[in-house]
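This protein record is not my work; I was only asked to verify it. Take the sequence as given and treat only the tokens as open to question. I have pasted the whole thing underneath without changing anything:
***
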Amino acid sequence: MQIEIPSPPPEGCIHCEVRGHVLLIGINRPARRNGWTPAMFQQLGEAYTRLDDEPGLRVGVLHAFGEHFTAGLDLPAIAEFMKAGQKVIAPGLVEPHDFGLPGYRRRSKPMVAAVQGICFTVGIELMLGADIVVAADNCRFAQMEVQRCIMPTGGATLRMAERAGVGNAMLHMLTGDEFDSAEAYRCNFVQKVVPAGLQLDEALRIAERIAAQAPQAVVATRLNVLKAIELGQAAAVADFIPVQQRLAQSEDAAEGVRSFIEKRPARFTGR
């Protein structure tokens, strides 16, 4: 897919585009390898919040303009916030890393990430905070915070071990060394590897397949998986009957039955 790169301000921006029920969320600072500034983080939080709040939007696709996903933080722009312990995203928004930061909302709708080229530090953490990741075969990954006397606080310490096991997580976080798309796939950090240039097409294809399903059931399924991971099996199982009962009373559930009887694709409205 070819998307024209909008001209960003020097501090970069987040460019959003709606495609049907899908919100494309583009990281736009290619001249600086999409290095993250406070303004970009704030706009990203606003974009994730828009996804959750607009009823017509069902799935997000996080991608980046230019050759690289991101080289990581623009440290001179971010360092003062880190020293002061300040957040760069205003409270009350959906926090894009999605690990339950106090004062911020959790995302409910699914997110697919498409990554290419350099994908360092916060880039890995943002893709791990998504639900499905498509990586180009030219990716260069590195969780290199330890090389700058920084602890990864965007979710890597939580999710790398969850996806790849403690040994693999320690290997990549404690050395800060680079690894490629094949290693990211081995570690379950990404779900698909495609030829460079096709990652956004594949991510959009997956997003559109998700968007064609019953939106309430998609959200409920996603949240139940996360509840099982974060709170344990019993907490997730406790939701089975009440959530299923709520879904069964929806208009979309009735449409699901009709489409089954009529042997046709369902036309879901989200109600």
Q: What stands out?
A: The radius of gyration is 19 Å.
